[in-house]
Structures are given as structure tokens and as C-alpha cells.
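Worked example 3 (structure in, sequence out).
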């Protein structure tokens, strides 16, 4: 067990034991994992994702790009920042190479969510945020203060600054206690706001700890006014070796010394372009860290410094060491470069022995949430950063988030913002005096993006993605001029830190390379989430069947009682098959198929989508949406139809029955019922608002029983003695109203099996009575969806979504007959005339017969032309869409989409399955009763 050799004297608290990368360590209560690792002298925490370079702790909070870890115990959690993981006894973790893995075990944690409303939401509990919350609370407004840290104060615990004469951390604790005393104030610690949406709707995630009943909680907050006091992030500079362990942001080193009592190194060099790093150098020196030199790129230097040597007008040109910093090379700037560009170091240079290099290239206000809210940004030349400008939302920005750099100004600005927010929400704010702090004068900063060199492969702009200045140069050299394009070309800013340390640095380098102003270049788009969030947290608590709505038909209880096994189709529970004693699925399905082909079977098809269309223009709407002519249907007739997207590909299929001159009933596939209704409404409301049509879903108003098989006519005749069921009186694709088993019903002569068949529709209330009457005839076998799939596939009837994808047209499926040549137009018609839709090598729906009649082809398997596969990439001719065993055919068969398939009938192709090349023969897609003689009995 190691003993924290880098723990500052007097800062030990309760000892906690943890394991990292297989070794046992000790830390202290209040540490983050990063702080505890630094206290134990662990410099390499992870390796980089692309280059495998060692990476150490670079920052102190959510802006950390390097120190990614995977928690193994007590709960599995991948890809967390060691800087935000609170240390607790028994923690087990390991470093990651820039990417993690999901645990194979179950997560025992619970996640939940809550909705909240408030008058004023303050994001950030730093100096400005606490001041804003105090001001707003004093007005009587309902206030929510959300901050992602465990304790309030923002940067105050990281510094030695005082507020109202007391240490900043003490003032923050007192402010929090005062807020807790207000009955209408809610303080959410450990709560990071992830997204800012329209109408002041914000989403936050609260980390509740490993011992809480729910580990994380999603807060969905609607606020009348918002104050963003999100602070600022320190940024780095691109120089050679700036990714080595031991290179750290100056503010982060200051935080580890003051907040955690940890020495991040023994001997440091400070590299800065502004005054803030001098305060960090003082605090480190006071804690016992030897500061070898302060390297200031400004020729006039900065604040007075009575410590080590200040090298004004110098820059860091190299970092020595393999696993971490061991030396720093400093050279004088040769002078004369434009803003953002140093001219390069003079020959030679001085080398300082050091194990720590602190960097401060400037400060970036945290404007991510403001950008998500639709706010525009403006570039401030003095600060060298983008600041909030105008926005359409009811939001204030305060403190460092809008570019203020001193404590006193942030305190006053936060108090004023909180008062304005409360007044805008309808409350009278008091005149509470703002807390005070002494602000030291500041010298102007210099805005530096990179240190020039002959080779930029070691100048990193994005540490998480291993993006270097050389990568950015390749992007601009390829002609990219937009920072958004460069981001996607290089992946800079796309990792877990979302560009917090790399975004503006990358933009500055791009602007320098292109010779344009950073203001002209702009920024990339800020998108939620601001910090990473797990899918489990967003999904919320597992509520079992309540997690996703479950829809059941009126016959569901009967199916359950008869032992049916179900499958989920479009949220519906549909019986898949009805096993008898000793039957597996294969045996049961073959039995059910034989019963339908040889006698009579019944299936619950109540889940089919049903849309009632009424109005004088209903026929016109259907003619425009279906490839088939629907307006010529006589009352009492039914027609099959296909819907296409504008690109000509199949969207859905079904039937349309004409109930009256101005009324139709359209059926859809089970899974597409809602989508088809939405499709109809979209065209009606956006393209054809003049059409007088009303579309109403009636799916759940009807229970439907499909009665199929050569014996179905006799069964229906017994159940409906008043209905003429002979072929001439009741032809295919017509419907009749009748009493079936004494129940008012609409009977349709429709078949999805190729057999003589009927679909009997009754009120949902009468569905069970009808089904029991059908089953009570003694000659009908219930069958499920698996049997239905086999029966329709034997006949070559495609299922949209299984035998189709986003490229298939009606012609590809052999449905040319369902495409009207007489209609002037329909959705997709023009696309069907494109040369690409008429190519002979398009994929066609065909049948496949394996040489081995017992070999079942897996759906999704590819087809190739030869038994011996060539070297990858292997050209494929298509893929298997459906594969089944057939009782009627006495063998296995499949349907497939094959390039030029109709011209390949009779050809031998091969299906790679594991190590086998399964030989198959291409056939027409209709394998059973191709003449259709069985359809009419």
C-alpha cells in the first residue's frame, strides 16, 4: 500500500482505500480520483485513443480531456473523467485508452427523473451564481440553483482569495446556508445542466452517489428566467510535447494544491500569456512546489513576482521526458509575429529540470448552454474569446461566463443579474449589497494559439482525439475553410469534453493557417449534452412492461389461456404460434401451415392498421398516395395498393375498401399504422390543404379474424347462414355486411395466404365471442404470425420492412401490376421513370431453393456468384430477406433481393454461412400455386 507522497502537510482527512490499474492506494475524503492519483504520484492515468501516448491529469473538473477511467466496482461505468469521480472507500478503476467498454453484467443502479418549475434558475454556484441566487431569493421568487460540483463556490476553494474579509470557501458555505434557509429555494449540488432548449426548458443530471436509492436523477426544469453563471475554462497553447503527463493547466494545479491539498509535482515551470498564472505560481510556491521559472510570452511580463525568474518575451519550445515531464526547454521569442502567432524561438534556449509544466493561454467563457439556447456570440479582441451577445430566450449571463475576470466584478455582476431576473419574473428585488473582494490590477493578455516549429506533429490541439496542428494543416491544405468542416475532418472537439479545452484553440490555429481573424472564422455549434451522460440515466427507471406501452387485442386472454407464445410487433403482442404438448416451434408451425393448406385455420389480425377516410375528396387523396387507381372502385369492392415515398421506394402496402361514394377504409401493416396515418395527414396539411378529407384511426375499434384454407367457405357458411358465400355471389376482393355467429360483421374476401380466405371484422367488444364461435366449429386450427410468414412467403407476398429496405420499388418486388399506368400522378411516379429505377441490374425479389432441402438459410445472409470467395472486399449480389421451412413444399426455401434476379432464374448461387458456401438455385418468387387456383376454392 503506497502512502500519498504528494499530499500537502495538514490536508489529510479520513483515509479512503481504492484500487487503480491493479494497485492499491489511499486517498482522502473529498478527493476526486484524479486528486488521489496525483497525491500518490501516479502520473500516467490513461493512453491516447489513436496514438497510444501516455496521458496524465490535465485539468481539475469537467474540462478534463485526458484522464479517462472505467469504474469496475461497486458499479460498472465506462468512460468517466477521473477529475469528476468522487473518491470513496473500495473504489476499483482502471485507465482507458480513450474509449471504454460496456459491462456484460446487469447494472444494479436505479435511475429516475423529476420535473420542476421555478421563477429563476441559476446555473453555476460560483461567486457570480451564488450572488445571483441570493439576490433572486431575497425577492421571494422560487429559485433553483444547480451546480455540478459537490460543494459550492466554483473556483473559490481553488484560490486564496477572500470575500467580505473571509476566505472565499467560507463565504460560499455561508451563502449556501443562507439559501437553504429560504423556503422557496432549492439547491441542487452535483447537478450538471446538460441542455438548454426552447421556452427556458433545461435538462440537468444529478449525481446522487453510490449509496443513494437512485444513482442519478434527471431534472427537467422549466424556468421563467435563467441566469447562466457557468464560469470560464482555461485554455492551453499548442507547443511541442504539450500532451505529456505533467503538462497541466495552471488553474488546475492551483485547485489541486488549495482544494485537495495535493502537490501535482515537485518542481514547476509556468508558461503563460496572462496574469492569472502568476497567482497559481504563488499558491504552488506557498505549498512547497519549487517554481523554476515563469515563462511569459508578453515582452513586458505581467504581475509583480517575487519568486523565481520571470522570462518575459519567451516561450516553451520543447518538453523532455518519456512517461512524463522531466525538463522544459525555453527560448526567447525572436519577435515580430502577428496576433496569435509567435515568431519562433531563438537558437539554443535554456533547459529547466522540472516534473510539472503549468500552462495558461487565456480563458474561454463557458458559453455552451447559451449557444444551445440559440444565443449568438461575438468575439472580444481584448479577451481573445467569444462572449454572449443576443438571444431569443429569457436568460441573463453573469460573471466569468460573460468575460469578467476579477472576483469583485463577478460578485457584483451576479447580484445585479439575479435582481434583474427576479424583477423580470414579476418580483420586487431588494437592494441587497453585493459581496466585496479586492481586485488587483491586470496587465493586458496576449492571445497565443501555437508556438511555431518545423514539425507540428507533436503540437496537440485536441488531447482526447490526438489531433495535432499537423492534422489541422492537412485539413486546411485540402481546401477546408469552415471551422465546422475542419472539426469533422480532424474530429477535434468531438470527444467527451466537447471542445472545452480544444474548441477555441483549434479555431485559433485554423484562423492563423488561413490568415483570417478568429472573429471571422467563428465557432462550431454547441450541442447538448454539455457533459457526457449515460443512456441508462436518460432512459430512467426500468418499469418493466410500463417502460414501453403494450397493446393487446380483445382476444389476448384466449391466446394466453391456450399457451400461445408471443412476439412484439409495433407495440402489439401477437401470437407467434400455439405449441401443443411436446412441440417445439418448428413442429408447431409446420402443423399450423398444413392445417391452413389442407383444411381451415384462423388468425387474430386485429392489429392491422385501419384508417377511415371520409369526405368528397377522399378518392382523390387515395389516388395521389397509392400507386393503384382507387377512385374507380365501386362501393362494395376492395383493391390492393402500394404507397411509395417521393423517391419511388415502397413505404407501405395494404387494401382499400370503398364503403360509400365518399367513404373508404384503408388497411396498413401492423407496424406502420401510425406512420401511414401521419403520412396522410402530412400531405393533407402541408401539400394539399384544399382536399376535403378526414382521416381517423379505427384500428382498435375493430376485432378482425382471418379465416383461411380450402375449408373456410364451409365454416363461414355455417356461422353466417344468411350470407351467400359461393364464388359468384361473393367474389375475391369484395366485402359484405352480414351476421356471423349472430354478430353484426363486415366480411372481406381477402387472402394473405394464397388460400380461399376471409377477414371477418366485428366491434372490438364482440371480438372474443366471434373468435370462440369460429374455434367452436371444431374444424379450425388457430395459427400465429410465424405460420402467416411461411404461408405468404410461399406465395411470394412481400412484407414491407422485411423483404424491403430503403431502396426497393414496386417493380423490384414484382408488383408492376399494382402500379397504374393511367394515373396522371401519384407520390413517387416521377422517380419510377428515372434511369436508375429501370436498370436491369436492380435487386429483384426472387426465391431460393437450397440444394440441401433441410438447410435453413439465415435472414440477412449474403449471396455470391462463386463457391470460392475472392479476397476482400467480396462483391455480393444481394441478401436473404426471409427463410423458412415449408410443409407444402416439403423443404426449406427463402426469398431474397438479388441483383438482376429475374434474369437469374435457374442460376446456381452461393450463400456463405459460417465456413460453408451453401449452394442455392434461383427461382421465381412465387413458389406455391403460381397459377393462383387455390385462391377461389
Amino acid at each position: 500500500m503506497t502512502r500519498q507522497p504528494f499530499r500537502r502537510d495538514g490536508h489529510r482527512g479520513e483515509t479512503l482505500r481504492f484500487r487503480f490499474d491493479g494497485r492499491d492506494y489511499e486517498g482522502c475524503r473529498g478527493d476526486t480520483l484524479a486528486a488521489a492519483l496525483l497525491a500518490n504520484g501516479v502520473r500516467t492515468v490513461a493512453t491516447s485513443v489513436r496514438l497510444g501516448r501516455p496521458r496524465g491529469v490535465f485539468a481539475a473538473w469537467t474540462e478534463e480531456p485526458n484522464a479517462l477511467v472505467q469504474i469496475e466496482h461497486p458499479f460498472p461505468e465506462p468512460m468517466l473523467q477521473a477529475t469528476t469521480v468522487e473518491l470513496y472507500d473500495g473504489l476499483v478503476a482502471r485507465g482507458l485508452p480513450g474509449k471504454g467498454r460496456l459491462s456484460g453484467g446487469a447494472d444494479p443502479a436505479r435511475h429516475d427523473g423529476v420535473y420542476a418549475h421555478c421563477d429563476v434558475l441559476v446555473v453555476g454556484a460560483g461567486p457570480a451564481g451564488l450572488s445571483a441566487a441570493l439576490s433572486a431569493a431575497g425577492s421571494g421568487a422560487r429559485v433553483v440553483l444547480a451546480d455540478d460540483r459537490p460543494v459550492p463556490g466554483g473556483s473559490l476553494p481553488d484560490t486564496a482569495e477572500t470575500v467580505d474579509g473571509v476566505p472565499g470557501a467560507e463565504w460560499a458555505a455561508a451563502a449556501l446556508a443562507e439559501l437553504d434557509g429560504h423556503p422557496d429555494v432549492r439547491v441542487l449540488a452535483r447537478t450538471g445542466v446538460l441542455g438548454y432548449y426552447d421556452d427556458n426548458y433545461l435538462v440537468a443530471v444529478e449525481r446522487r452517489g453510490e449509496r443513494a436509492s437512485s444513482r442519478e436523477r434527471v431534472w427537467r426544469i422549466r424556468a421563467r428566467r435563467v441566469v447562466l453563471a457557468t464560469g470560464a475554462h482555461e485554455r492551453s497553447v499548442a507547443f511541442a510535447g504539450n500532451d505529456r503527463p505533467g503538462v497541466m493547466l495552471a488553474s488546475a494545479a492551483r485547485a489541486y494544491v488549495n482544494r485537495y491539498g495535493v502537490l501535482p509535482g515537485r518542481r514547476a515551470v509556468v508558461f503563460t500569456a496572462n496574469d492569472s498564472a502568476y497567482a497559481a505560481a504563488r499558491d504552488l510556491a506557498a505549498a512547497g512546489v519549487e517554481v523554476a521559472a515563469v515563462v511569459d510570452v508578453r515582452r513586458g511580463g505581467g504581475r509583480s513576482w517575487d519568486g523565481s525568474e520571470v522570462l518575459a518575451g519567451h516561450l516553451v519550445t520543447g518538453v523532455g521526458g518519456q512517461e512524463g515531464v522531466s525538463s522544459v526547454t525555453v527560448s526567447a521569442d525572436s519577435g515580430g509575429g502577428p496576433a496569435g502567432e509567435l515568431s519562433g524561438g531563438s537558437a539554443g534556449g535554456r533547459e529547466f529540470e522540472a516534473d510539472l509544466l503549468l500552462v495558461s493561454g487565456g480563458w474561454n467563457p463557458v458559453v455552451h448552454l447559451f449557444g444551445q439556447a440559440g444565443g449568438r456570440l461575438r468575439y472580444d479582441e481584448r479577451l481573445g474569446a467569444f462572449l454572449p451577445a443576443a438571444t431569443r430566450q429569457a436568460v441573463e449571463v453573469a460573471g466569468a461566463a460573460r468575460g469578467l475576470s476579477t472576483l469583485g466584478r463577478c460578485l457584483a455582476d451576479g447580484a445585479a443579474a439575479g435582481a434583474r431576473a427576479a424583477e423580470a419574473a414579476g418580483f420586487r428585488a431588494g437592494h441587497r449589497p453585493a459581496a466585496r473582494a479586492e481586485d488587483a490590477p491586470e496587465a493586458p493578455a496576449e492571445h497565443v494559439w501555437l508556438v511555431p516549429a518545423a514539425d507540428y506533429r507533436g503540437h496537440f490541439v485536441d488531447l482526447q482525439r490526438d489531433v495535432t496542428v499537423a492534422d489541422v494543416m492537412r485539413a486546411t491544405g485540402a481546401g477546408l475553410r469552415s471551422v465546422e468542416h475542419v472539426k469533422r475532418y480532424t474530429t477535434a472537439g468531438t470527444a467527451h469534453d466537447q471542445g472545452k479545452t480544444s474548441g477555441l484553440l483549434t479555431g485559433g490555429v485554423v484562423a492563423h493557417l488561413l490568415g483570417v481573424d478568429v472573429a471571422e472564422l467563428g465557432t462550431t455549434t454547441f450541442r447538448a449534452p454539455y457533459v457526457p451522460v449515460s443512456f441508462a440515466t436518460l432512459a430512467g427507471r426500468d418499469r418493466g412492461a410500463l417502460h414501453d406501452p403494450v397493446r393487446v387485442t380483445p382476444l389476448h386472454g384466449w391466446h394466453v389461456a391456450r399457451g400461445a407464445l408471443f412476439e412484439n410487433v409495433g407495440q402489439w403482442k401477437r401470437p407467434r404460434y400455439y405449441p401443443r404438448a411436446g412441440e417445439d416451434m418448428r413442429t408447431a408451425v409446420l402443423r399450423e401451415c398444413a392445417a391452413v393448406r389442407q383444411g381451415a385455420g384462423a388468425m387474430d389480425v386485429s392489429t392491422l392498421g385501419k384508417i377511415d377516410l371520409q369526405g368528397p375528396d377522399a378518392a382523390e387523396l387515395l389516388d395521389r398516395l397509392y400507386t393503384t387507381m382507387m377512385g374507380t372502385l365501386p362501393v362494395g369492392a376492395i383493391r390492393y395498393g402500394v404507397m411509395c415515398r417521393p423517391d419511388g421506394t415502397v413505404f407501405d402496402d395494404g387494401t382499400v375498401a370503398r364503403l360509400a361514394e365518399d367513404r373508404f377504409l384503408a388497411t396498413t401493416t401492423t407496424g406502420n399504422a401510425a406512420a401511414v396515418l401521419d403520412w396522410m395527414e402530412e400531405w393533407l396539411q402541408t401539400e394539399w390543404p384544399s382536399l376535403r378529407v378526414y382521416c381517423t384511426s379505427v384500428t382498435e375499434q375493430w376485432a378482425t379474424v382471418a379465416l383461411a384454407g380450402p375449408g373456410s367457405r364451409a365454416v363461414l357458411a355455417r356461422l353466417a347462414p344468411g350470407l351467400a358465400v359461393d364464388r359468384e355471389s361473393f367474389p375475391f376482393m369484395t366485402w359484405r355486411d352480414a351476421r356471423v355467429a349472430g354478430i353484426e360483421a363486415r366480411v372481406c374476401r381477402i387472402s394473405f395466404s394464397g388460400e380461399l380466405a376471409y377477414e371477418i371484422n366485428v366491434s372490438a367488444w364482440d371480438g372474443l365471442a366471434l373468435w370462440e364461435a369460429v374455434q367452436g366449429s371444431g374444424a379450425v386450427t388457430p395459427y400465429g404470425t410465424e405460420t402467416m410468414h411461411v404461408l405468404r412467403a410461399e406465395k411470394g407476398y412481400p412484407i414491407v420492412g422485411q423483404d424491403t429496405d430503403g431502396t426497393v420499388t414496386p417493380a423490384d418486388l414484382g408488383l408492376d401490376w399494382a402500379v397504374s399506368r393511367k394515373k396522371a400522378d401519384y407520390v413517387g411516379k416521377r422517380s419510377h421513370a428515372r434511369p436508375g429505377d429501370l436498370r436491369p441490374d436492380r435487386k429483384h425479389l426472387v426465391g431460393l431453393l437450397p440444394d440441401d432441402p433441410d438447410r435453413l438459410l439465415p435472414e440477412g445472409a449474403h449471396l455470391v456468384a462463386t463457391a470460392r470467395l475472392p479476397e476482400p472486399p467480396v462483391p455480393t449480389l444481394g441478401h436473404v430477406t426471409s427463410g423458412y421451412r415449408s410443409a407444402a413444399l416439403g423443404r426449406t426455401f427463402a426469398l431474397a433481393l438479388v441483383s438482376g434476379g429475374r434474369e437469374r432464374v435457374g442460376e446456381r448461387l452461393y450463400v456463405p454461412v459460417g465456413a460453408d458456401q451453401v449452394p442455392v438455385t434461383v427461382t421465381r418468387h412465387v413458389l406455391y400455386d403460381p397459377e393462383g387456383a387455390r385462391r377461389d376454392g
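Notes: Residues 407-424 form the longest helix (18 residues). The radius of gyration is 36 Å.
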